[in-house]
Design a protein that fits this description.
CATH architecture: Sandwich
Distance between the termini: 66 Å
Structural class: alpha+beta
Helix content: 10-25%
Radius of gyration: 26 Å
Strand content: 25-35%
Shape: elongated
CATH topology: Immunoglobulin-like
Number of helices: 2
Number of strands: 14
Order of helices and strands: HHEEEEEEEEEEEEEE
CATH class: Mainly Beta
Length: 181
């Protein structure tokens, strides 16, 4: 009885093995692996500086947005999901570095083909130049780290102006949104 079961099991393996090798090579090559996340080395980054993308730093009545883009410069498809890390370095000796808080928005997975670009916004709360120095933050550089990465880009702040300094606030008026939103 044992040898019959072994013979049946071996026959099933031979049939299964034959079926597996019978898949045409063209069908096997069309199945692609899911793209993996984008690494800092895969990307370029910068501030969106088009006329409609510039933050309104000369007004102080409301929040405004600046946009930072990521472009996939690699030759592979990759994904970005989550929040970038953003540390602002101030121009004044009293500014120091301010790590921006995240919004409560839910991130979505962005798939970037080679050459594709996505962005994220930073909501800013500008203040008047006459605001006392200790209450304002004057941006000079932004250290921008893609989601789930440790290496960053250093971007020079191109827009001027100053932001209400709330680097210790629980719900600051300046914060960042997830990539793609």
């Amino acid at each position: 009885m044992k040898s019959k079961l072994t013979a049946v099991a071996l026959a099933a393996l031979v049939v299964a093995g034959t079926a597996a090798t019978a898949i045409p090579a063209s069908a096997a090559t069309t199945a692609k692996a899911a793209p993996t996340r984008c690494h800092t080395a895969d990307l370029k980054a910068g501030f969106a500086t088009g006329e409609d993308a510039k933050p309104e730093m000369d007004q102080t009545e409301r929040q405004t947005q600046a946009y930072i883009w990521f472009t996939n410069q690699s030759n592979r498809t990759c994904t970005l999901s989550g929040f970038a890390g953003v540390d602002m370095i101030g121009a004044q000796s009293t500014d120091g570095t301010w790590s921006l808080a995240r919004s409560s928005k839910t991130p979505e997975k962005m798939i970037l083909e080679p050459g594709d670009t996505t962005d994220f916004s930073i909501t800013l709360l500008p203040v008047a130049a006459s605001t006392p120095q200790k209450e304002k933050f004057v941006p000079a550089k932004f250290l921008v780290t893609p989601p789930n990465e440790t290496a960053h880009f250093t971007l020079k702040w191109p827009f001027g102006g100053q932001i209400l300094k709330q680097d210790g606030a629980t719900h600051p008026g300046t914060y960042l949104n997830p990539v793609g939103l």
